[in-house]
Specification:
Ribosomal Protein S5, domain 2, binds adenosine-5'-triphosphate, Alpha-Beta Plaits, alpha+beta, binds 4-diphosphocytidyl-2-C-methyl-D-erythritol, 8-stranded mixed beta sheet, 12 strands, 300 residues
């Protein structure tokens, strides 16, 4: 086999409950992940060394060296296999970069699946999951897809029953937000308030809405503990969220660490209308529609 192409979806967080800061610099979470139909594509081709090329959405903001998460994934997989494999990776990006939709994590997951195939390793998902958790908190979910709740750093996953499809609108912002800075801002806000930080818990009503495919109930239950921090770092997002609510979104929130804003619509037609209204309001760099849940990485 000379090359393998894998298509991998973005995520939105339906509930992101953030516990107190841990000694290792991470936070315990209850993180309800939901994979949506915005896809990056990663092609792995046989080569002696390791290299990566990136094209598409904001490709100029993605490193084309050993810092690229997809290359780090390939290196980690080769090390796990105990061999000095090479690969040339070509990434076609559609997921916004540093947008809170786990684009880098998706590329890392796709690289694990593609190289496992290209190198004929035949490693089971559970081995790839272990490598994924070392690469980043969002990478295990990017291997799984669908809808799942993550605990610990977000890397310990339990798949959830979700009826769907749910119809989404995403408002992309100019420039990204650093995940670490958003978590740090969340800690700063909490320190200023001086209130005790509760252990995160899954919202029963949200899980029920997912199981029932009830978009209206789901819209009312969407929460993100990082949202206030993202809004402090990017105040213009308040107007974006307000515009979506004003145009009838069932729910509106910042996706993960932002700055992408996510809006839940009642149907595919409603999502189209909402997207048109948000474009007209001029509150986003670009507006996209998508549905979820969708399966995880797939060889195409
Ligand atoms: C915001 C989310 O995207 C929601 O799914 C994730 O929690 C972030 O996942 P990620 O981008 O894979 O993050 P990582 O690469 O693991 O960590 C980046 C930084 O985010 C912060 N971080 C991340 C995950 C977590 N549970 N607690 C944290 O405090 C830490 O400062 C860490 O140094
Ligand atoms: N393959 C990659 N694709 C995108 N960004 C990458 C990649 N490799 C490294 N990066 C770097 O990682 C940073 C975070 O990018 P990413 O798109 O994963 O952010 P994000 O969607 O906010 O992440 P998350 O939702 O997991 O917090 C960017 O600054 C980018 O330069």
């Amino acid at each position: 086999m000379n090359s393998v192409t894998v298509r991998v979806p973005a995520k939105v967080n339906l509930q992101l409950a953030v516990g107190p800061l841990r000694d290792d610099g991470y936070h315990d979470l209850v993180n309800v992940f939901h994979a949506v139909s915005l896809f990056d594509e990663v092609t792995a081709a046989a080569e002696t060394g390791m290299s990566v090329r990136v094209e598409g959405e904001s490709a100029d903001q993605v490193p084309e060296d050993d810092d690229n998460l997809a290359i780090r994934a390939a290196v980690a997989l080769a090390r796990h296999a105990g061999r000095s494999y090479g690969v040339s990776l070509a990434i076609r990006k559609a997921i916004p970069v540093a947008g809170g939709m786990a684009g880098g994590s998706a590329d890392a997951a796709a690289a694990l699946v593609a190289c496992n195939e290209l190198w004929g390793l035949g490693l089971p998902l559970e081995d790839l999951m272990e490598i994924a958790a070392d690469l980043g908190s969002d990478v295990p979910f990017a291997l799984l897809g669908g809808t799942a709740v993550g605990t610990g750093r977000g890397e310990r996953l339990t798949p959830l029953e979700a009826a769907g499809p749910f119809h989404w609108v995403f408002a992309l912002a100019d420039g990204g937000l650093s995940t670490a800075k958003v978590y740090a801002e969340c800690d700063r806000i909490r320190a200023e308030e001086g209130l005790p930080v509760a252990e995160p818990r899954a919202a029963g009503a949200l899980l029920a809405a997912l199981r029932d495919g009830d978009a209206k109930a789901l819209g009312a239950e969407l929460t993100n503990d990082l949202q206030r921090a993202a809004l402090r770092l990017r105040p213009s997002l308040a107007a974006t969220l307000e515009a979506g609510r004003g145009h009838g979104a069932l729910g509106a929130l910042v996706s993960g660490s932002g700055p992408t804003c996510a809006f839940l619509a009642a149907s595919a037609a409603h999502a189209g209308e909402l997207a048109g209204a948000l474009r007209g309001a001029g509150v986003a760099r670009e507006v996209l529609t998508a549905h979820g849940p969708v399966p995880g990485p797939a060889v195409v």
